[in-house]
Structures are given as C-alpha cells and as structure tokens.
C-alpha cells in the first residue's frame, strides 16, 4: 500500500490571520490525501534561527517520507532562493536563508534544488506570500510523489547559519543558550550528553573529547550563577528549585520545577553557559 | 473515486477551552472521513467583520467542494438564523449575521437555506453553543453529501454588512483600513490592484475606472503620513523602513520591513487611507 | 469497514515549541491512518485540574473508539505511573495524577493499566518528555487496535482529585467556580441543571434533591454580588449586562454579554458560588 503523504508546517504566521490555513487549502488542492501536522506557527516573526531549532527537535520523530515545510521568510520577494532538500530522514521545503542549517549539519543531503519550475507553483505568484504560492505547492507535489529533481536545478551553495557555539575543553564544555521554551526551560547548545547507566557522558560524536564524568560533582555556570550537579529528572528537586538536567533533545537544560528558569536567570538565546566537570 | 470531505473552521473560540476540538468530535462522529483544517480560532471575540475578512482571504485557495464552517456568533440563542449557502467556490455554514457578506459580494449564491431540520442537529441543542450543536453537524452532513436543500427552507433576505469603503476618483482611490495582521501589516480596502508587467493597474472590475498609473510616483496617505511610491516587494527597502505594496490578497498594504506598521502608524480598522496617482 | 483511528490531544505544551507536533509525528509513525484532533495545548502549565475540566467538556462529543491523550505532567520522571483506561465513552492515556478524575466519576472504568510494556514505548525514553516517548506511542498503539491489557498490569488505586465542591440544600445549591473560559465566562460546579420545557430543574442524578424551581425568581450569589434570575440565553439581556444561565455543559455559568464576567467579578477557580431558589 502506498504511504500516506505527510506534510508538516513550521511558520511565523501565527494562527489568527488564516495564513497557515490558506497554505493547507493549497496543499489539499494538490494532494487531497495529504496528512497535515502543525509543528509551530508561533516562531517569532522573522526568527530564522528559532525556526531552525524547533524543526531540529521535531523532524527526527516523523516518518522519513514526511515533507517538512518551513516558512520563516524575511527575504520574501527578494533574491533569496526557494529550495527543497532531501535527506534520509525527511524532505524539507522553504527559503534558502539558513533555516535548514541544523538539519544539514546532522543529515546527509541527497538532493538540494531551487524551486524554479512554474508547474509546481500557483499560476499567480504574489511577491509577499510565497508560503502560499511557491512553498505549499512544492511541498504538496513532493508529498504526492513528484521527484525532487523535477522541481528545479541543483543548488550547490545553500546559505547556512553559524552553528551554535560549543567548545569542548579538558575541564568542561562552553556553550550558549539556544532556546527558551514555553515553560521557561533554558535549552543550551551543550548537546550530545547522555546517561549511560549511572554515568553521564558526552557521546561518541565528540571523538576527541569523549568523556564520562561525575554528574553530581559537575557544575553549570550561567548568568553569574552556579548550579550544582546535573540531575536525571525534575522529581529530584522540590517545586520552585532550579536544576540542570539533560533535556528531551539530549541537550543540557536549566529548569525551575513548576516555574520559569528563564525568568529567574534573566537569560536569552546567545548567552554563555559553561558545564564544568 | 469520491472526493475527500473537507471542512474548515473559523471561530472566535480560541484554542484553550476545547470548544473547537469539541466541534471536531461532532464532525468526525457524523463524517468520519472528513478532513478538518483550522483557518482561525483567534478572531477577536464577537468579531464578525474580522471573521468575514479572514474567511475572504482563505476560501479561494480551497477546493470548491470544501465546507467552510464559521462560528462567530454574538447572537447565539436569539432570533438570528443559522444558515448554509452554496456557491461555485465553496459551501458555507454559520450564523446569519453578515459574516458571509464578502463571500456573497464575490460569488454567485446558488442556494441559501436556514438550518431548520432537526435531523441535521444534535439531539439536544444548548442555547449557548450552536457551534457544537447546530453548525458542526450541518457542516458535517453537507461535507458527507447531504443536499443543501434538505437542511431547511430557503432564505431570501440574509443579513449583510456594509462592504468596506472604497471610492475611485480621477486622482486616486479612497478606502479604509480593513485588517491588521500578526506582523502589524495594515491591509486596506483598496483592492483589485495588480502588477501588469511593469505597470500598476486597477483591474477590469472597476470598469469605469480602469487605470494604469506610475507606481513610483503614487503616494499613500494614512494617519497623517505620506508614503511615497507603491513597491513590489519588501526587499526594495531596508529593515525598519515603511512601504506601501500590493499584498497577497491583491489589496494595498502598508508594512514596515521586519517591523509593525500598525504600531508605527497607530491605525485601526476603519481609518481612512488614500492612494493618489 | 474498520473504524478510522482517532486520537485527541490535551496538553500544557503550548503551540510554539513543536512539542505537540513532535508527539503527532510519533503517533503517525505508529498509526499512519490515525486522525488527530487538538482539544487544547493551552492548559496552564502543570494545570492538572484545568486539563481534567477541559477533557470533561470535550470527550462526550467524540466517537467512543477515540483515544484521548492527555499530557499535563508535573511529576514526569518521578514515581507517578503512566496509565491508560478504557470506558464505554472512550479510552484515555496520560499520567496517573488525577487528570482523569472527572471521567472516572462519570464513566464506568472497564480497564485501567500501567503503561509498563517497553514494546509500546519509544526505544529511548527521556526523563522529561514522556508525552513523546511513553504516552504518544501508547495512544497510537491503542488507536491502532492493540488491546489495553497488553500495555501493562492493572492499576487498582489510581490517583483522584477531590471532585468540585457541590452541596444541595433545601434552599439551593452551594458550589464553586470551576473554570474561566476565553470569553471570560465563569463556569461553576453547579451542574446537572436542565430546562424541562419552561421550568428549570436539577436532574435525576440528585435523587435526594431533585427539584424544579422558578428560574426567574432564583438568585446567584458570587463574589459579593447577587444576580437575579437564571436566563435561557444571552439574547435576553443587552450587551454589557451580566446574567446567569445554564451553559453548554449543563453547568450554571455567569456571563457578561459581549464582555468578561470574570473580569467584572474578579473571580477565580475555587471561589464560592451559591444558587438560591
């Protein structure tokens, strides 16, 4: 049996104006069987880096035949190219502004094309809403089985964002705040941490720095504060207390149980975080 | 193969209380195969005119067999009729309070009925939530193929809102602010603008006023400010600057690139806008 | 023909971070045909009681084969058990923290199990996001037809919240504020009210107190104010006025027509409400 076409949407459109719904109308007009899943429409306006992060946490949990449509597009109507890329973990459609940087850092890119063929756009393309007129049709056609190479010529030089700061030293790891979530949890760029039985370790990807260390003896320094120990779960502390733990994406997080660490610390994306062990 | 039943939802219910989800439960109980698409649940409470606008921008991009369910219903429980109307561009279900005015101004109405037949309502109809008890069942039955005439008697005199102000004069067009979107873009009632090659024109619908004009030489006056020129795209100006352009719905918009024109201008729906050429 | 698998989602995840979308990816990876409906992702963070209420208003309107997934989970990673329960009105999956108390008070529980079998979890289970790693897979397998008993051993002692305060006296009913909705409507615990023709009555469930009373002569006391009469509909009063009425869930509500009763009264969940008749 054929796979059910699956398209996710990640945008900064909000949900009040009907922009996201309009894109879905376009998709279902082209691929009536497509299943649509909202990843987020609440990315901060023009928040390319935030969209890249949200996508990075979500796409690995979708089937590999999923088409991930991302429209955070401050350069709409200008020279930036509309692109699609295929990886073994999924296919991605959106503007060439770096929003797929984290995907491309983790997945091999099997194909990367510019969305140039007018057959896979709406007949009338506006200059301000390529989500509706260019990206949604491309995602729908890809989900419906059109080969990616049909959509346009290869792109050899996609725009990429600098990857989040992350430096492994003998005594620890220096990173930065990557994201603050709805609960006020502070997600850091210090990733690839894992619990191996009872020990905390950096995973094998850091070949040069693979290390096991005493989680209880480690400290996390951020915003002038020191947090003692890396915990396994919120349940180890009382409500209202702050802790460091390995979050659901494998990154070091700072959280206040049933509270907001971001508010308590006053931190923002880009601020330095140090894990000492 | 039969078409996949498709129902969109536009309400002022928000997404916190489960009202929209409850309507979907009702729809899927009647039409298990129906596909559901949220257009917006964030219309301002009782914002009939705003809902009319959001629907107007979205419905043309859905397949024509779509049923558009709109529940912004300050008169629930009173004398206002529940209605359904069919046009070549879609079928619409909601309260008879003018919310379909813009649809009826643009599309020929093939059928318009009152939702009077109790077979197409829930058994027990509350006095405060007709979205769940009257409108959702009607939309589901229509999506599942029940002929619109079965739902109730014809309505000859639907309520209509005054259409947005728009006057074409020899020297320009006088309109009003129609909507402020999530980005702070100011959408005006000055529509039917199109780029024809390199020239900006009013389209043929304004038969008496069809005109081409020098977009660069035009000015837009709003809230005591003058904006020089009508641009093609955001990319023509620097971030933080204000511009006028033809938006994705074919209407004149005022925007600040990567900022909020509504905040910069302090305008609201209903304020006058003049395009001089 | 087989029923279409149907899963609803009720969480406190918000919609900005992609957490809810990620759960949907997991579900569709396991049950590709499942239909997904959002009930709410805007439950207040850790608002177990609010989630219990939102679920209570929504689930009766879904087909009985629906799986309702609820993830409001302040105890994630601690000792609280992940559970599933089956009732004639639906199947429910979530943490054992009382979030299903209102369901269990109304529906007979046919089966109640701990989600212990690792075959029905993701391979790698994080300590902070059981919504993705434990609850979503369980809901998907249940929706796809796995018998509930396969998921783990029976649970005999689920956690339950105290039911909302509600005392029937000869002269009236004493209850509490249960919920404030997006419109500022104040929903109270005074439920099981129904209009029987022209009379207002407590339904038969209050066997000891079954009563008919003069709706126009009743008064509602809340926050130091008295509201005269219980109305049938908003349409009986002018915009801006306050009224008491029987809301769409059969509970006494206090509302301001086209305004916010919660703001006007300054009430919160737990505040006392008295209906005198």
What does this structure look like?
- Three copies of one chain form a homotrimer.
- Chain A has 277 residues and is α+β, with helices and mostly antiparallel strands.
- Chain A has helices at residues 19-30, 48-58, 101-106, 130-143, 261-265, and strands at residues 6-11, 35-40, 67-71, 82-87, 90-95, 111-114, 166-169, 172-180, 186-188, 193-196, 199-202, 212-213, 219-222, 225-228, 230-231, 242-246, 252-256, 272-276.
- The relative contact order of chain A is 0.12.
- The longest helix of chain A has 14 residues, at 130-143.
- The mean pLDDT of chain A is 91.
- Chain A has five helices and 18 strands.
- In chain A, strands 7, 8, 9, 13, 14, 15, 16, 17 and 18 form a nine-stranded mixed β-sheet that branches. A six-stranded mixed β-sheet of chain A has the order 2-1-3-5-4-6, sandwiched between helices. In chain A, strands 10-11-12 form a three-stranded antiparallel β-sheet, with no helix packed on it.
- In chain A, strand 8 and strand 9 (186-188) form a beta hairpin.
- Chains in contact: A-B, A-C, B-C.
- The interface between A and B is large, with 32 and 39 residues.
Low-confidence stretches of chain A: none
State the largest interface: A-B, 32 and 39 residues
| Extended strand count of chain A | 18
Tally the helices of chain A: 5
Average pLDDT level of chain A: 91
**Strand residue percentage of chain A:** 25-35%
Quaternary? homotrimer
